[in-house]
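Quick one: structure tokens for this chain, please?
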Amino acid sequence: MAEPVRLYAAGSLTAALTEVAQSFEQAYGVSVVATFGPSGLLRQRIENGEAAHVYASANMKHPHTLAEAGIGGPVVMFARNRLCGLAQPELDVRTETLLDVLLDPEVRLGTSTPKADPSGDYAWALFRKAEDIRPGSFDVLSEKARQLTGGKDSARLPEGRNPYAWVMTEDRADIFLTYCTNAVLARKDTPALQIVQVPEPLSVGADYGLSLLAADKPEAARLALYLLSAEAQAILARYGFGTTNGE
């Protein structure tokens, strides 16, 4: 039996890459041991010596950092995502009013943790876009944002719960900025939640980077290539990710 391939991947990829790994295992008879979590924290664990074979990040920066340190190989973009708002059922918010609602001092805004989790970095990118539209927005939004997930000190998630649905059902925020794919999964957990599309002037896209960390392991290289295959890309598309073929 070949050694299992150790995949470290962004938490937002959990559902999609769990299915991809199962498909890979069935096709090639090689098991995949997947570790999911905030991309930045996974990168730090790899830098500290944990033996990952393939790294799938929610941004391009973290795998490039590993490549520059001589830990990983070339980085390729293998999926795309974007931000949405996940809102409490009673919150009066629509795409066209999203910025007004985010700036409302009575509205509690949740995000993930910047630097530890790219979703938080993308939220701050949205704040910078808001500043261009309405000066002063960046300071208001960055100061009020509650960093509720993705950090070393984030609250421990109950077993089996979607992290974003749990944050909302625990009433820790009125609206939470996260990936649209996360928002879809959160609403499957808690159907009453609202998904609010971000208006184009505020829209922030996320490019997901893939890096092979163990070039001497053929099975790891095969998994990295499989993530770019039509089969894997179709699975990613079913979970709402944009893919390399433009879907």
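DSSP finds ten helices and ten strands in the chain.
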